[in-house]
Amino acid sequence: MTYANVIVDLSAEAVDRQFSYAVPEGMDVQPGQLVQVPFGPRTLEGFVVSLSDSCNVPPEKVKPVCGVVREEPVVLPDLMELAEWMHVRYLCNLVDALRLMLPAQMRGGRVRERTTRWARLNLTDGELEAFIAANPRAKKQIELLKALKDGDMETAGIETKSALKALVDKGAVTIRESEQRRTPHALSNDERTADPALLPEQKRAVETLTAALSGGGRFLLHGVTGSGKTEVYIRLIRRALEMGKSAIVLVPEIALTPQMVAWLHGRFGGDAAVLHSALSAGERFDEWRRIRSGEARVVIGARSAVFAPVQNLGVIVVDEEHETTYQSDHRPRYDAREVAWKRAAQHGAVLLLGSATPSISTYMRAMPGVRPENRLALIELRQRANGRPLPEVEIVDMRGEFERGNHSIFSAKLATELRACLDGGHQAMLFINRRGHSTFVSCRKCGYVVKCDQCDVSMTWHQAENALRCHYCGKTLPPPKACPRCSSAYIKYFGAGTQKVQEEVRRLFPDARVARMDVDTTREKDAHERILNRFRSGEANVLVGTQMIAKGLDFPNVALVGVVAADLSLNLPDFRSVERTFQLITQVAGRAGRADVPGRVVVQTYDPDHYGIQLAAAQDYRAFYTRESAYRRAALYPPFTVIARIIYSGRDADAVQAAAKAAEKALGEYLDDTDARADTIHLGAMEAPIKMIRGKTRWQVLLKLYFKADLEAVAGKMQALADEAPAGTRAELEVNPNNLF
Ligand code: ADP
Ligand code: ZN
Ligand code: ZN
Question: What domain count does the chain have?
Answer without folding.
Answer: 5
